[in-house]
Design goal:
about 240 residues; alpha/beta; Rossmann fold; six-stranded mixed β-sheet; 8 helices; about 25% strand
């Protein structure tokens, strides 16, 4: 019997990404392996979203090499991504999940049970039949997380999932993220919130001008940064 395919580790080897004459990612080399959440920070335009898109396989590098579990095939096996402003289908919350489960190849006879479990997991069981586009911003983000979890990912990429949410909604999303991490899912998440970094991260990647300026365990990154650019960023200075 063949061993199940894994998408981990994700290995970027001297990867660059360009678009329209602009270099979005500049010779980045790093490994995303199983473990505690990895949070990505950096100033606007540093390349955070571009890095997630590369890790998901939504963008091909201009140079360098990316492998997923040792494979060069970009087709996702067990990875999912949630963007800052997810698009909701014009159907109920439950039907959004039914569509995601269908895309993931889950047999129709098994979907109702999985839908109920996923809605409960993200605290939306009471809103199963509400049109997804009538949910609040925080509820839509939780539904987007449920759709991603429907793929049974081992790698979940999150692009500033709480950027436009109030504190209560942010706390709900963070709880889902932490529970997913505790279940063994590798979380890679971008954020501008250093408090969120301290609450969620196992390690931190600091991007600057498309390159990996520093990567350290969260305590060392926040309390004892190695690079002067990191010190300036944590102090709130403009770093470009």
């Amino acid at each position: 019997m063949r061993a199940p395919t894994s998408d981990l580790p994700v290995v970027l080897d001297d990867v660059s990404l360009g678009a329209g004459g602009t270099r979005l990612i500049d010779r980045a080399s790093l490994t995303i392996a199983p473990g505690a959440p990895t949070l990505i920070v950096g100033p606007n335009g540093a390349g955070k979203t571009s890095l997630l898109r590369l890790c998901m396989g939504l963008a091909a590098p201009s140079s360098g090499r990316i492998t997923w579990g040792g494979r060069i095939d970009r087709a996702p096996s067990r990875r999912a991504i949630v963007f800052q402003r997810p698009v909701m289908l014009r159907r109920s919350a439950a039907a959004n999940l039914g569509f995601a489960l269908g895309q993931a190849g889950v047999p129709r006879r098994d979907r109702a049970k999985r839908i109920a479990s996923l809605l409960d997991r993200v605290g939306l069981a009471d809103l199963a039949q509400r049109p997804a586009r009538r949910l609040s911003g925080g509820e839509q983000q939780r539904l987007a997380l449920a759709r991603a979890l429907a793929r049974d990912p081992e790698l979940l990429l999150l692009d500033e999932p709480t950027a436009s949410l109030d504190p209560a909604a942010t706390r709900s999303v963070e709880e889902i993220v932490l529970n997913a991490a505790q279940s063994g899912i590798k979380i890679v998440m971008t954020t501008h919130d250093l408090g969120q970094v301290r609450r969620l991260a196992g390690d931190v990647i600091f991007l600057l001008r498309g390159g990996v300026c520093e990567r350290r365990p969260v305590g060392d990154f926040l309390d004892n940064p190695a690079m002067p650019e990191t010190v300036a960023f944590l102090r709130g200075d403009l770093v470009i």
